[in-house]
Amino acid sequence: MSHFRQSIFLLNIYEIAKFLSESKELDSKSSQWRLRNFLTLSTKYFEIAFPLDPRQSLMENIISLRRTELSRDLLQEFIHQDINTRGPLSYGQIGRVMIIWLASGKLSEDLYKKIVGRVPTEYHSWKSFMEILSCIRATKMEEYQSGNACGGKISKSHLAKDIVRSEAMEVTLVEKFYEALQDTYKVNWIKLSDYISPSCFLYLVERFLILVSQCKGFFFTTKSSFVEWLISEQSEVLHTSKVAINQQSLEEFYHSVLMMVQQFLSNKGNTALWITRSGINFEAYYKVLVMRLVVVLCLLCVNTGKYYDVLSFVLRNNDVRNQLPKYFYGILFPCLKRRYFQISEIGEAFQIAGDPLLCVNLRENTTRKLPNVIHVQLGTTCNIEDIFDLLFPARNESQAPNSTVSEVMTNPDATSSSDCSDQPKILTVPCSEVSPPSEQNLQQVNWDLFQEVSDFLKLIGSENNGTTSTVAQKMKEEINMHIKFLTAAITLPELKKPDAGEDMAEEVQRMLQELQQLHSFLDTSNLEVAKAEQLLKSLLSRKPKIEALLSQCIVPTTLKDSCEEQGNTVCVEDEEIESPSIAAYSESSNKATEKKQPKGKAKAKSKKSRKGKGKK
Asked: Which residues is 382 bridged to in the sheet?
């Protein structure tokens, strides 16, 4: 079942259970107990809203759900249940609370007081951060509401005072955020029973980077991080302002993130222990974590114009390289040879990895553009819907009568509109998802594809460069089409007919699993060709049975999107933006910096920076 469908079901379960639990007609203990179980079940929504791999959060239908009041209410219900324990809050609880808080915009007053009252004394930095965050969010909401009440007309003197007060509060917020992250990183987490998870911690680090980087008037970030920031903005108009951080503090903030990333990448033993003690499968998550850490390091480089020597050192590390997707590493590999990186190349790597690089400008329109980067212009009265339209162009297209799952929920207010009835508002999957109206003869599997993949795997086994990345991506897309194809076919009634054979559904299921494995093989930097060949032989051996079965079947074409792809790759090539300060971060700047360094210096500096604590 897709994440979108799971989200729909969990939101409906929550809405109905909440409605019934507040009804006076069901007051028996057994009924209340069952309703509490349903409410607990609905909180599984947290895992879908904040996946371990942030690229999975870039599905437009999931984002539309996230922006509803029902989604915010369910996430706050998660907090209520998560902190429904005795004693002070743990680092793990604080981490989960903070990512929901930052993503939701504002918590209810009762929940805020309950959280702050449970923060232990030794975690005072988190308590201070929570207090200033609550104050800023409340102030912004008041300003937005008062601006609407006045028809958008506010006196210049009043506006100037608000700006000064807002900037001072923003600086304090960044400082408190920095202190809280440092205290969490430096604590002796081995002795703690519920420490913050890697996924939660990196989510907070990414949000911290956005806050810090705003001081320059523009900043680079990933599409997934920027969308999270957009979702947290509850007003229709984005009020942007630079955070006035002095240079010394700015350097300290960036360096702290650099040190954490280096430590997590260099100390695999501690990182593995951190993952497993967080209840996460190490084998399934370690590649995702390494990729995310390298992305953070790249963001540090493009936002500061330095640390490229550290990035080079990290990418030359065999363990790190082996965890990265082949196409991602292939694009950056030529940079290692010539000893400098271009922002356009980092942008291309991000883009093909499914989480494009964004340059967000807080100033007026400028003229320079950067290739392979999505340029987002934020002004004093920038409309949030315009930004979503830029990031997700499909929002502007009219939908066909029979929309697929990926085409629904484009209206973020669909579940939060006012209703005179007291009945719960049920989210629905369109009829085309339940009973597709149109069908056509199923096309045969392209069996020649597997020989092409075999030849390609042998090629990349001997040539480790960026020239194969485009071919790999095209093959992954074709494999993904087959995965969608069989995912739709496996639900067909023909597979359940007696004359089809009892093992036919299982045969299709096995092939589907092998295709998924093959798809993942093309994401691996250090591929074992022998294992891949064995998998390809197994796929080809299924040809007689699969062809005989599928030739008799028809499959709904509207199910082609039932297997969701990760993220939306968008490159706005013609968007114009640039100021003199952005030009300072162009390709020539880091080229000049890197070429001046003697050989071996990058490695020595990186080794020195790795010294220190082995903590998270």
From this structure: 238
